[in-house]
Amino acid sequence: QVQLVESGGGLVQAGDSLRLSCAASGRTFGAYPVAWFRQAPGKEREFVAAIKWSGTSILYADSVKGRFTISTDNAKKTVFLQMNSLKPEDTAVYYCAAAKALIGSSRYRQPAIYDYWGQGTQVTVSA
To answer: What is the pLDDT of residue 28?
Structure first.
């Protein structure tokens, strides 16, 4: 069993930066993927970025590529999402998710492959 706790959300202005953290407790394995998703009011949950706990196999949604950076500290079982040049459309609840199996990166965008989810952290970007 893995528990995930997100932190770092808040209210910022357009163009600002935020760094989200997701701390895991329980067993993690370097080859397994961990990801960030987000869900805005009235919209479906969408993929943001994914990475293996080892720090390899990184994937981004087109909407955040070049602005967001995902990284891990495998020793501390923590995954980060550095968000720069934030836009109002980035406003959402951001969730951390982790899988408990070795999965090909072609499937990282699929919420169904993730077995564990955090409670989410709110990010609000004002214009």
So the answer is: 75
